[in-house]
Write a structure and sequence with these properties.
The protein has about 325 residues and is of the alpha/beta class. It has one domain: Alpha/Beta hydrolase fold, catalytic domain (Rossmann fold), CATH 3.40.50. The protein has nine helices and eleven strands. The strands form two sheets. An eight-stranded mixed beta sheet has the order 4-5-7-6-8-9-10-11, with helices on both faces. It has a three-stranded antiparallel beta sheet with strand order 1-2-3, with helices on one face. A hairpin with a 6-residue loop joins strand 4 and strand 5. The longest helix is centred in the last third of the chain and has 20 residues. It comes from Tagetes erecta. This is Alpha/beta hydrolase fold-3 domain-containing protein. Belongs to the 'GDXG' lipolytic enzyme family. One of its GO terms (molecular function) is hydrolase activity.
């Protein structure tokens, strides 16, 4: 009987075999494994935040989501942050410690309910599968807002007039796609109040100057970038696909919410991200920029760096504070 062969391997995160099996067991340095370990939900408050998981959709088994509820006055209506996890469209889950660590903090400090769907992953489910899941979760929030369905925490505590999209890395790409798609839909009484792409995976087939000159990091290398996008994009697509290359696209007449684009000075992708920012601004869209200095891609997800590097800790505080301020404005 022939043994299966490895056809691709991505830096400790993923091994793909010729029989279609994809193994996402962490094979990198063991001291970093905890960041991808799942955190069980807890309906009681821990450090001011409670969490639970549920299934949404017509059959209640379509999409799983995690909900984070901050401790607050029961009479207080809280904004809702719809979060899309990163991972190059190929890895990570909403219950990973790295997300739990930062989004419990954001829920607590911004006094917002966070909703994070477990998106389908490539290569088993190529794009637009993850975008479809993300948009379906937004439509579920709309159904909650008009009482077509019910979820206790959101239905009683959520302010559906203040729903924000947020996403890390490839999740930032999904934020932009969902915001564009929502522009042509009737979401009332839900109101999409803002969009927050954090270090979105914007690229072109031709390497940008920042990809060539900025330092690679454990959170993003050029090899990871190339392989993830090759597995994630629709079959036969290049990095010039609109999902990964929205820079300069025509958005006249597209009613987008205000954006807060979060970038990191040492991110490999900062050049195309800034091109996106300038294109949005020149196109008359409402967009603000939050820059973190001396740090790289998704720095705030690295708990080890937050604990041991003063600048990473300081910049993470700046990021959370900036996002909370943006949410407070709208």
């Amino acid at each position: 009987m022939p043994t299966r062969q490895v056809i691709d391997h991505i830096s400790g995160w993923l091994t793909a075999y010729d029989d279609g099996v994809v193994d996402r067991t962490w094979t990198g340095p063991p001291q970093f494994k905890f960041m991808s370990d799942p955190v069980p939900p807890h309906r009681h408050f821990i450090d001011g935040v409670a969490t639970h998981d549920l299934f949404i959709g017509a059959s209640k088994s379509d999409i799983r989501v995690r909900v984070y509820l901050p401790e607050a006055l029961e009479t207080e209506k809280l904004p809702i942050i719809l979060h899309f996890h990163g991972g190059g469209f190929c890895i990570s889950q909403s219950d990973w410690f790295m997300y739990y660590n930062i989004y419990t903090r954001l829920a607590r400090e911004s006094k917002a309910i966070v909703v994070s769907p477990y998106l389908r992953l490539a290569p088993e489910h190529r794009l637009p599968a993850a975008i479809d899941d993300a948009y379906s979760t937004l439509l579920w929030l709309r159904d909650l807002s008009n009482h077509k369905t019910h979820e206790p925490w959101l239905s009683t505590r959520g302010d559906f007039n203040r729903v924000f999209l947020i996403g890390d890395s490839s999740g930032g790409n999904i934020v932009h796609q969902v915001a564009k798609k929502a522009a042509g839909e009737k979401l009332r009484p839900l109101r999409l109040a803002g969009a927050i792409p954090i270090h979105p995976g914007f690229v072109r087939s031709l390497r940008s100057k920042s990809e060539l000159e900025k330092p690679q990091s454990p959170m993003l290398t050029l090899d990871m970038l190339d392989k993830f996008l090759k597995m994630g994009l629709p079959e036969g697509s290049t990095k010039d696909h609109p999902i990964t290359c929205p820079m300069g696209e025509a958005l006249q007449g597209v009613d987008l919410p205000p954006y807060l684009l979060c970038v990191a000075e040492d991110d490999l992708l900062i050049e195309p991200e800034m091109e996106f920012y300038n294109g949005m601004k020149n196109g008359g869209k409402m967009i603000e920029l939050l820059m973190n200095n001396g740090v790289g891609h998704s720095f705030y997800l690295n708990k080890v760096a937050i604990d041991f590097d003063p600048n990473t800790s300081e910049q993470t505080h700046k990021l959370i504070k900036g996002i909370s301020k943006f949410i407070g404005k709208y």
